[in-house]
Amino acid sequence: MLEIVQLTRRLGPGFVLGPIDLSIAPKEIVCLVGHSGCGKSTLLRLIAGIEQPDSGTLQLDGKMLAGPGVFVEPEQRNIGFVFQDYALFPHLTIEQNVMFGLRKWSRDEAKERAKMLLSLTALSAMADRYPHMLSGGEQQRAALARALAPEPAVVLMDEPFSNLDRDLRERVRSDTLALLRRTNTTAIIVTHDPEEALSTGDRVVLMKGGRVVQSGTGRELYDHPSDPYSAEFFSTFTRVPGVYRSGQVHTVLGAFPCWQEVADGSAAVAYIRPQAVYPTVAGNALTGIVRSRSFRGEIEQLELIVDGLESPLIMRTTQHLDVVEGKLRFRIDEDAVFTFADPQP
């Protein structure tokens, strides 16, 4: 559906987006994620035609939208856009907002299309209301209905849930994904929230400094990060320095299988998730001093001081632990430890 090849955009002297290579299949929902300033929203604007690339090509359903000597204007791209602030027209009713992009349709067809989308987004009873009369979640659904109205080939959504509180955000996100599925819509959703990225859509595209770092399903990126940045973006870790020898990274907490092929004797780092640390009574267990405990409802987080570690080892558990004299015996699940060559040996 969407094919991006070597797309670049220079934004001032200090930042270049790209080159970006990205293919998106029909009906696929892709989540672009990364820290603020990594280029997510710029890439969205390039796809929409709000900005023009410096080089590379962009094709939609086989039609060239941007490339050498070619630039199709936004209104001719058949792409819908849901902005972060929704950008609903305040002087138009919700029904009129949805019908805004249907000016080339007959009035009866436009009314029927708007009625159908308002029903799908559970906004039928609010068709005659104005945007300021709706809640944040209702405004978000109205903006999505408006974007879907002209039957676009792709819908772009820039941080669409960021203005909602946590409970509402999860519900609106679930409803939005269900609607995109029901309408067989190809969509690209931008977020900076790791949890939201992992739970949204078919594929996650992680960006850093204007480049794509890793792409895959949420589970693939979480379970098999390609580098330290990917690992740390999606989870909390304790970084434990070590040395690579004979296929393992040797640390003060033990030896762990190495994911990368590096020279023997090279500096390496083991990344240990809190969930990989387990309490145990085994005789060969490691021992730590509990520095702090934080009860968080379903889980409890502990910080352990361990001989040889500069920073505390973080542990999260669902068990109710009795800590005797501040000491805790623990083990580490080596299958849940990620190892990489030290980027700063």
Automatic annotation (TrEMBL):
Identification of the protein by name: Iron ABC transporter ATP-binding protein
SUPFAM superfamilies: P-loop containing nucleoside triphosphate hydrolases
Provenance organism: Nitratireductor aestuarii
Keyword Zinc: no
UniProt entry keywords in alphabetical sequence: ATP-binding, Cell inner membrane, Cell membrane, Ion transport, Iron, Iron transport, Membrane, Nucleotide-binding, Translocase, Transport
PANTHER family referenced in this protein's UniProt entry, alphabetically: PUTRESCINE TRANSPORT ATP-BINDING PROTEIN POTG, SPERMIDINE/PUTRESCINE IMPORT ATP-BINDING PROTEIN POTA
Pfam families membership: ABC_tran (PF00005)
Cross-referenced InterPro entries: AAA+_ATPase (IPR003593), ABC_SmlMolc_Importer (IPR050093), ABC_transporter-like_ATP-bd (IPR003439), ABC_transporter-like_CS (IPR017871), ABC_transpr_FbpC (IPR015853), P-loop_NTPase (IPR027417)
Molecular function in Gene Ontology: ABC-type ferric iron transporter activity; ATP binding; ATP hydrolysis activity
ABC transporter domain ranges (all copies): 2-234
Biological process, per Gene Ontology: quaternary ammonium group transport
Family from the record: Belongs to the ABC transporter superfamily.
Highest taxon above the source species: Bacteria
One annotated Gene Ontology cellular component of this protein: membrane
